Amino acid sequence: MFLIHPIGANIYLKRISLVLACFLLTTFSSRAQSASPLATPDLAQANPPAQQPSSTSQTANPPAAQPSEQGQSKTDQPATNANGTSKDRLFFALPNFLTVENASRFPPLTARQKYGVVTRSAFDPVEFVWYGALAGISQAQNSEPGFGQGAEGYGKRYGAYFADGTIENFFVGAIFPAMLHQDPRYFQSGQGSFWHRSGYAVSRIFVTRTDSRTNQFNYSEIVGSALASAISTYSYHPHPGYHPMPGVEVPYVASDRTVKNTLSVWGSQVGYDTITLVIKEFWPDIRRKIKKQPH
Hints:
- The chain is mainly alpha-helical.
- It has helices at 9-32, 43-46, 55-60, 111-122, 125-141, 150-180, 194-203, 219-234, 259-291; strands spanning 89-90, 94-95, 99-100, 186-187, 207-209, 215-217.
- Strand 5 (207-209) and strand 6 form a beta hairpin.
């Protein structure tokens, strides 16, 4: 039996997501280790001897004989918008619009574009279904009992989950990146071993690219998620869950609005975002395997 803080359905459900993500990555890594890195160019395959042009044509048109960047053909990559955001979806459902596979091909985003892509992600139809499922699980567990039960309780939980996710997305992906001129996109590495690429993905929680293409501490993620956690904890979550009434024995529930709970939610959010980045790093490889595309 798990002990969960009143605010902890949010943390508990994210831990479930972390476990599932780790399982998927472990399964994939066992297959990846027996093969060469998927993103390493294979010039012999890209240019088989039977299709080699003459030496004259090679000199005249050298770009035509080169593989695309990172060894991936254009058909391997998801469609992108003109502003350098993606049309991809994780597991063909969840919005993955801020992940791109070739960093050098894309210019920096303007502040308007940063807000635009986060808005498109936050209000994507799939997100409404996702938050509805989380609210249903939370109600079944009676987490944060101050919300109550019934339609009213479900509505409060749904609103809280939707607000939590939306506020965090805007702070991390739009507000701070626009103010600090940081790039909110995740640029896939696609090179090296499974552990090298995993390490790169984890490092992106703390290091990000600026609009001028230099590396900088990821204030958008660390500070942005901290502020989002504080707003979530100290505003619309129950405080406290139960109020004693004369003649009625009710269990005492301490206030949710504490620094400890804020730090717990913050740590859970950063951990969840870290695993999400690792999944984003390997999702193109998984997508190609599912679609049975060539490397």
